[in-house]
Fold this protein.
Amino acid sequence: MTTTLSLLQARRLALRAQGFGRADRGEITHRQLLAQIDRLGVVQIDSVNAVVRSHYLPLFSRLGAYDRTLLEQAAWSQGRRRALFEYWGHEASLLPLSLYPLMRWRMQRAHDGVGIYRHLARFGREQHALIQRVLQAVREQGALGAGSLGQKTGGSSAWWGWSAEKHALEWLFAAGEVTVAGRRGFERLYDLPERVLPSAILNSAVPEDADAQRRLLLRAAQALGVATEKDLRDYYRLDASESKARLAELVEAGELQPVMVQGWAQPAYCAGEPKTPRKVDASALLSPFDSLIWERARTERLFDFHYRLEIYTPQHKRVYGYYVLPFLHNERLAARLDLRAERAHQRLAVHAVHTEAAGLDEAGIAALALNLRQLAGWLGLLHVQFNCASDSAARLQAYLR
């Protein structure tokens, strides 16, 4: 018989799989940070810096205040502490080095311009000479960004302008012929993989496409706790037809367990027999690009929380604000806040506080106030300032005082 889960059980499975409910262990170490990233399997990168770059936030939401240089060392250092690489995982992402072999099939497809990479085929053909010249420049000059490479060409016409140069670097990156060695500000610096990544990773056996896809779906299932086929394929952005075929193979092999979730129209899957925790005690502000909520339809199914990012919505049409962070509390998404780190004034500005229909009790308000204080402190900001007037804002201000 197929196991049936209540919605609350599904939430608890998802929250625990995503690393919430961790007991406080004091200062966060490099090893603890990497263990959390390995649990997630992928951390999305985004350039918006309204509060802090998004890839820093998911770890803060789960671990609390940590030294951000730990993540930077893991992602972009040249030493033994490097444990991550950048690639197209779920959008632009940081991934554990152990997943590099599982992305080689995607790199090959990008090189060949097939599947979802068909748009690269024409550029690869028509700009082959440009691509090779850019690659040669990387070989000779080391880690380069698009801007610095252009400055060394002796004229814009030699490289068909900055846009073509950037496209060439992105083509090489997608094809795995260069990787990200580091960042200058937020600009990627590209270098040859053999000068950046451990030889043991580069020389690992490359699995067949189908095997890599199965392993990525399993990683997604472990990270999500319980998920539909669409949820699973979205985690690493797999092709729909291939995902469905690989999913059937995993079910037949007993590696994924079909389950039903009350209120979900589609069947769901767990990695093994679901073991629901009794409770997941966690309160956290979430990045808009957090893997718990990035698939918006799943967020609505799981938490009854309709969420859309309004950065690109004209100001007069925004409902909740420019950069809105959901607040997780008592196993539900209980509120959302429009926040901004105003570094010049050393303050965390709260432009709006919206609670969900069930509201926040006094314990919830106290937890949210604590999260705001901790976030401000972690960002090096001296205080929290409210630029909005509402009952929830007034209650939060009372706790912060």
Q: What stands out?
A: The two ends are 55 Å apart (CA to CA).
